[in-house]
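Progress narrative, work stream C.
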Amino acid sequence: VGHDDAVTSVCWKNNLMLTSSWDSSVKVWDYAPEAGGKKGPPPAQKVELEHETGVSCLDFDPSSMQAAAGMADGSLILWNVNDQMIMGQHSIHSDGEVKAVQFSPDGQTILSVGNDQYMKVLDVKTGTEVYSKQFEEGLRCLAWNNEVVLTGGESGNLHVWDMVNVKSLASLKGHRGPVTCLAVSPDGNYVVTGSEDKSLTLWAVE
């Protein structure tokens, strides 16, 4: 069970698990743990989606019917998981890999960040790039918090961006090294960031 090279990302929703790898594949697995916390049978591979280059990140849409794969060459590929068909392929980041990709909460847009210092928003239905913002540093990770987007930067900053009014709310210094990952609490009141400096920072959302 697994891939032929390093696994780069895992996403798990609605008893379906997505995994991506530098082996240029995305795999879809059926996995529903048994009640009571029992381990149950191992995940069963359902689909393998082949790509021409390594896959750096991925995400499911809220329905788990579409998947977005960020590529090592800076492109983004949108898949219909059930039909195993490519719905769109877009060259959106010009310098190196897509670092993180995530569907908006309503599934209508896809947000991505990359080595090229850009945060970009793609309309799922039309494939049109609807927003592009250049930062002063490379961006490593991202998360939606309702209509606010959080991104982690190479300099250790947490950037907070209002996507409705399209403006910066804050740029907060929290680490001495690049912010490599972040997550939002279920109630949206807290954010935690992790860094190459080996530290975790917990933020309260005001």
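Work stream C, second folded protein:
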Amino acid sequence: MAYDRYIAICKPLHYGTLLGSRACATMAAAAWGTGLLYSLLHTASTFSMPLCQGNVVDQFFCEIPQLVKLSCSNSFLKEIFVLVVSASVASGCFAFILFSYVQIFRAVLRMPSEQGQHKTFSTCLPHLAVLSLFVSTAMFAYLKPPSISSPSLDLLVAVLYSVVPPAVNPLIYSLRNQEIKDAFRKILLYTLFLHQNYCHHSPKTTT
């Protein structure tokens, strides 16, 4: 997403060449392949850990740090190594995204039109905010020291990186579309109309 906006804003004349169907398919395949490899590494590592402190995870899903807590052997060091490598790769991706946005903002600030600047910032900043929330909370969840761990804090951080970004992303991208805005407004008005109609015709009780 960041690379797409970087090309669209900073190199608009080369957009069709740099981001053709082949380039998009390559980036999608790389993202899916990296995600699959990441999942396989964690799955193989966690399934090889013996759990000798019960099998009840104090979380609403099988989060890896919670599984590490249940392990009582030195095999969990393999999982910690995988986590550190994963955090390093994620940090590199985040740095690349930040670099893309820095280039975008530099190009936007040179625009003479304030309306164009406002439109670009309103498009890019929500994506960057959600991405920052995901990366920061995920790294905190996986790399925080055990001394500051608590069930309530672990649950809050897990919700922030696993539930909030996927829930907010569709709103960020869809509400940029005027047709979706109009449809959403019609649904709200229709819901309000039904509620008022129900309240108006509902039988009133007297005492």
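The two ends are 62 Å apart (CA to CA). No further action is required on this item.
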